[in-house]
Amino acid sequence: MAAHRNVTIKDVAARAGVSITAVSHALNDKGTLAEETRRRIREIATSMGYQADALARGLRRSRIGVIGIVLRPLDALEDYSPPGVDYFLRFAGAAAVSALGHGLSLMQVADLVKGPVTPLAFSLDGYVVTDPVRDDPVVDLLESRSIPYVTLGRDPGKPQAANWVASDDAAATRTALDHLAEHGAHDVAFVGGTDDNSWNADAEEAYLHWCAARGSTPRLFRSPERLGETGGRELVPRLLDGGVPDAIYSLTGRHAAGIQEAMRERGYTAPEHYLLACGTDAEQTRTAEPPITAIDLRPEVLARETVALLAQITRGESPAGRRLVASELIVRRSSQRGR
């Protein structure tokens, strides 16, 4: 990656065609600039990689022993504490502890692109970026600034990249589907999310291959992750259009909980009338009635692997990336008939 030249406020002013004072006012929410002018100046400053803080510019020249973490799915939700979703808490907590083991501290940072962001965010030694979407703008920003990073999950738009750790989502999907088949399911509906990330893509591809190998017709549905239980509930009429499926595999726990509730309201209960499993464990899957079979993505293990890879990179090493971590299927009553 090319070195990122220090950009001055004068450079931003020249690019924007305004005075230095106008740039200062736009970036510090001062003065009487029109909102459109303020927004345009900020966008130009961001695109140029401007850092207003002299300390941050100085720190960027040397390691400071701090790495950052950006939780992209929560950035997309614009909610950093979605009810029942403890995966990110488990990951971030384990990452912080793992960082200490490498002599590092961990700083959690909100969306680096939308801003405003503290200039110190660009002084960190490196970043963990969770679940990047295709051609993720945060990844692009880090690359433009020559800041090392590791992603949890591949960036689907960068197939040649090796600086990633991921759960083996294809294998986890096959394991869950095989479990449903072992308990009598042939017609299995799949409910994925809409984020364009490797988790959705790999699980969906594995499902389609599984159906093709068994000669069954895919019944594939998607719902935005941000809709949670509501999204699952709203899908049920479509899920039932072709008749009650033998089983439903929902990638998110919140969708699965909503599906279970809406199916029950229509007189269908798991596991008596259909089997239900999901691709990530959550509070909703553990406390549902019946409890829902789910994949434990083992975020603590993912965190250790991700931080270890980033620590090696920040030390100037060239470690092997593309590390896959096996998940674990937690079988519960929703997918076991006769229990």
Order of strands across the widest beta sheet? Answer: 2-1-3-4-5-11
- What would the average pLDDT be, to the nearest integer? 89
Shape: elongated
CATH topology type of the domain at 169-297 and 328-335? Rossmann fold
- Can you tell me the residue ranges where pLDDT is under 50 for at least 5 consecutive residues? none
User: Structural class, please?
Assistant: alpha/beta
Radius of gyration: 23 Å
What's the count of strands? 12
Major sheet summary line: 6 strands, parallel
CATH architecture of the domain at 169-297 and 328-335: 3-Layer(aba) Sandwich
Helix content: 40-55%
Distance between the termini: 57 Å
Q: Number of helical runs? A: 13
Order of helices and strands: HHHHEHHEEHEEHEHEHEHEHEHEE
Question: Which percent range describes the beta-strand content?
Answer: 5-15%
Broad CATH class of the domain at 169-297 and 328-335: Alpha Beta
Assign the CATH superfamily of the domain at 169-297 and 328-335. Answer: Response regulator
